[in-house]
Amino acid sequence: MKRFALAGNPNCGKTTLFNSLTGSTAHVGNWPGVTVDKRDGVYKKCAEPVKIIDLPGIYSLSPYTPEELIARNYILDEKPDCVINIVDATNLERNLYLTTQILEMDVPVVVALNMMDAVKKSGDSINAKLLEERLGVPVVEISALKETGLKELMDKAFNESKKIREGSTVLETSPLGHLIGDVKIALKGQNVANPLFHAVKLVEQDEIEANMHKETLPMVEEFKKTFNDEIFGGDFEALVADARYKYISSNFASVLSKKSKDTTKMSKSDKADKVLTHKWWGIPIFLVILFGIFHLTFGEDLLFLGKIFSLPSLEDLGLLNEDGDPINFGVRILATFYDGAVMSPGVWINNVWNDLIVGEFFGWLGGLVEESGMAPWAIGLINNGIFDGISAVLSFLPPILVLFLFFSILEDSGYMARIAFILDRMFRRFGLSGRAFMPMIMGFGCSVPAMINTRTLADDKERTATVRVIPFFSCGAKLPILTAVAGAIVAFFGVGNADVITFSMYLLGIVTAIVCVLLMRSTTLKGETPPFIMELPTYHVPQFKNLMAHLWDKTKHFVKKAFTIILASTIVIWALTHFSFNWTFLEDEQVNESILAGIAQLVQPIFTPLGFGSQLGSLGWVFVVAAVAGLIAKENVIATFATLAACLAAVTGLDLGGLAIDAEDGIDAVQAMIQATGITIPGLIAFIAFNMTTIPCFAAVATAKAELGNKSTYHWTLVFWLVASYVVSAIIYTVGSWWWTIFIWMVACAGLVACIIMRNKKAAKRLN
Amino acid sequence: MEKTLDNFSIGEKGIVKMVLGEGKIKRRLFDMGITPGAEVFLRKKAPLGDPIEITLRGYELTLRKTEAACVKVEVQS
Amino acid sequence: MGPLEILLIVACAAIVIGVVVASIVKKKQGKSSCDCGGDCAHCAACRSQINKK
Known about the structure:
The structure holds three protein chains of three kinds.
Chain A (H helix, E strand, L loop, with lengths): L1 E7 L5 H9 L16 E5 L6 E5 L11 H12 L4 E7 L3 H11 L6 E6 L1 H6 L3 E2 L1 H8 L3 E3 L8 H12 L15 H13 L5 H9 L3 H6 L4 H10 L9 H17 L3 E2 L10 H9 L5 H17 L6 H5 L19 H9 L7 H27 L4 H19 L2 H17 L1 H15 L7 H6 L4 H7 L6 H10 L9 H15 L4 H25 L10 E3 L8 H35 L16 H9 L17 H9 L5 H18 L6 H4 L4 H11 L3 H13 L4 H11 L2 H27 L3 H27 L1
Parallel strand pairs in A: 1-3, 1-4, 4-5, 5-7
Antiparallel strand pairs in A: 2-3, 6-8
Helix pairs in contact in A: 3-11, 7-8, 13-18, 16-17, 16-18, 17-25, 17-28, 18-25, 21-32, 22-24, 23-24, 23-30, 23-31, 24-31, 25-28, 26-27, 27-28, 28-30, 31-33, 32-33
Chain B lengths: L1 E3 L8 E7 L3 H9 L7 E7 L6 E5 L2 E5 L1 H4 L2 E6 L1
Antiparallel strand pairs in B: 1-6, 2-3, 2-6, 3-4, 4-5
Chain C lengths: L2 H26 L12 H12 L1
C-alpha cells in the first residue's frame, strides 16, 4: 500500500485533514503541538487504498525537539511515497519556511493550501497557480474543515507518488549556494540518500549530521575559515534561516494580495484577548473559569440559588415518604436535579445515570441472579464481587466526561494557549516554561496522553520533572476515590462539604507538584529555565463534531477498561478473599483468614504513620489492598472497596441496608470500611493523598518508562513517587491528628531547604 | 533608533536588525520567522509584563523578555 | 455444583487469563505505551535508533 505523510506547522489543520481523509476521530485541539506522536489511517477514495500518516506539527527540520526528529526521521528513513505539506494560507510566510526544507528531500511533495475559506472571508486572495510555478510542485487549495478540495489533493498526490522527484533548494542563490552544491556532490559520491537535504543540514552544522558525516564536515569548516558575512559572521545556521525567509518574502509572498495592509487592526480574536489576557484581570478570570468548571461538574447548588432564595427541600414539599424515598416516579426524576437547590448539569447527569440507569440495571440483574437458584457463594461472587466492582467504576463515568468536555472546550477554543501565556511568569519561578502547563492540565484527564505530550518540551530535564509530577494532577480515574471518600466523610462524620474536600484535594495535588518541581529543579534536575517561544492560535468556536469525538473516545476507553482489567481484578480479589492459604473456601465472615488478608497484614505496619496501618486493627488491611489494587488501575481502589464491603459487613455484623447491590456510589462502601475499621478523618484524607501521589497505574508507568527513555531516570522516578506519596500522606495524617506536629515538619523542611541552598552555593562557588 | 525587543512598549513597531544569543534559542527564533528584515509589532504584555506577544509575518508569537532581549530592532514610527 | 456454577468459574477464569495474556502479548509485540500498534513515526524512530546501536 502506498504511504502518504502529512507534514506541516503545528496547528495548521493537519489532524483535521487526517480525520477528514481517514474518517477517524484523532484528538484535535487549538493548541500548537497536540499531535506529538504519529498516527495512521487509510484513505479509500483513490485508485487504490492509501495509508495516510499524520506526523507531528513542526516549524522546521532542526534537531532540537523530539517531534521535529520524529517527522524528519520518518520522511528520511521510512521513505513515504509522497509528502503532503499542509500550509496554513492565513500564515503563508512562516508555513512556507518548512516547505522550503521539505522540498530539499528527494521525495514527491504536494502542497495543500489549507484554510483558504478563512483567507477569502477576510477579502484576501492567493494566486495558487503562481505559487505552484514558483515552488515547482503541485499546489491544491483545500479546506480541511469543510472537506473541500480533498479529492483533488489526493488525486494529485497519487499522481506525484508515481514520479521520482529530486530535492531542490531555494538556497542556490545565497552566499552558501556553492558550498551546498559542493557538499552535495561529495555526499552523492558516498552514495548518501537525500544528498541535498543532508548537504544543507551539514552546512548548517546540525549536530546529528555532523556526527553522521564526519568525513565531509572538514569541507564546511575549511570554507567557514575563508568566509565572513557582515551580519552573521560564521554562523551558517542563521545565514541559512535568513536566506530562506528572504527568498520567501521576495518570491512567494507576492502570491498573496491583501485587502488591507494594516497588520495592527483589531480582529475578533484581539478583542477577546483584550479581556481574557488582560494585565490585571487575566489571572482572576482564569481562576473564575476554573471554579466555574468544577461548580458545573460537582456543585449540588447551582449558582447557590438554593442558599440565596432558601428553596424548600423535597421533604419540606411533602414529596418523600417516611423512608425518605420519593413518593412516585415523577418525584424520582425531579429528585435527580432538584432537592432544596438546583443541581449543576454534572450532578444531574450523574444522578440520572446512577439512580435511574446503572442502579436500576444492576439491581435488576442482581435480582435475576438471586432467583437463579445458584449456590450462595456463586451469587456472592456475581453480585458482591463482579457487579458491585463494575458498577462502582461505571458510576463515575458522568463526572469524568463532563469535566473532560469542559477541558476540551477550553483547548479547542484556543484559550489554553493563552493560559500558558498568562502563567508563564509563575511557572518560571518553578523552573518550568509556560508550555509545561498543557501536559499538566491534560493530566487531569489521563496521565498517559499527558506524559506523551511532554514531547513538546525541548529541554530534557524539564521533561523529566514534568513527567514525574503529572500523576499529581489527579486524573479521571482517581476522581472516584476523591468523591467516594469525600462523600463518605460527609455522610459518616457529618462534617465538611464534599465539593470543598474534592476541590482541595485537587489543589493539594497541584501544590505537591509545585513543591516537587522546585525541589527537583534545585537538586537533581538543575538547569536553565527553558525558553518560551510559542505561537498563539486564533480563537475559534469549538466544533461540536470534534467535542463529541473526544467524549466518545474517552467513553470507549473507560468502558473497555471496566470490562477488562477492572473486571479481572475484581474477580481475582474476590477469589483471594474467599480462599485460605490451604485452598478451602471461606464464607464472607471468615475474610480475615483469607490469602489476601494474610499478605496485606504483613505490609500493613508500613502504613501506620499514614493513618491506615496497624492502628486500624485486624480489618485495616482492606485499605492496603485497595491501594495496591490501585496500581493496576486507579478505578480499582473503589471497586475493591465495593467488593469487600459485603465481607466486612458480614464480619462486623453491620446492616448495610441492601448495600450489596446498591453500592454504585462507592460512598456506601467506604462508609462500611469506616465503620468496620474505625479509621479517622486524617487517616482517610491521607489515604486519598497517598493514592493520588503514589506510583500511578500500569499504563502511566509504562508510558513514563517509554518517555523517560533512560533506565536509571525511570527507576528514580518510581522511587520518587513512593517517597513523595509517603511523605505527603504522613504529613497530612500526623498534622491532622496532632496539630503540633506541624512544627516538627516545618523544622524538617527548613533544614532540608537550608541544606539544598548551602549545597547549591558551594557548587556555584566551585564553578566560579 | 535601535533597541532590543524586550524594551518595546505596547503598540510599537520595528524592523529586526539582528538576533543575538546562543544556538538553540537563536535557531528557534529564526525558525519562527524573527530574521533580519522582518517587521514586528508589540501587541501586548502578559500580567506582570512578561512574556510579551508580538505580531510578525501575519501571525502572533509569544516569547519571554529574556528571549526578546536577543532581538535587536530598528524602531519605526 | 450445578452447571451454572461451573460455567461461572470457567467464565471467570477465561476473563482473568484473557486479560493477562492480552497484556503480555501486547508487551511482547512492543506496543506497551503507544496505541498506534507499533506502526507510527515515533515507534519507527525508536526502532531506527535501536538498529543504529
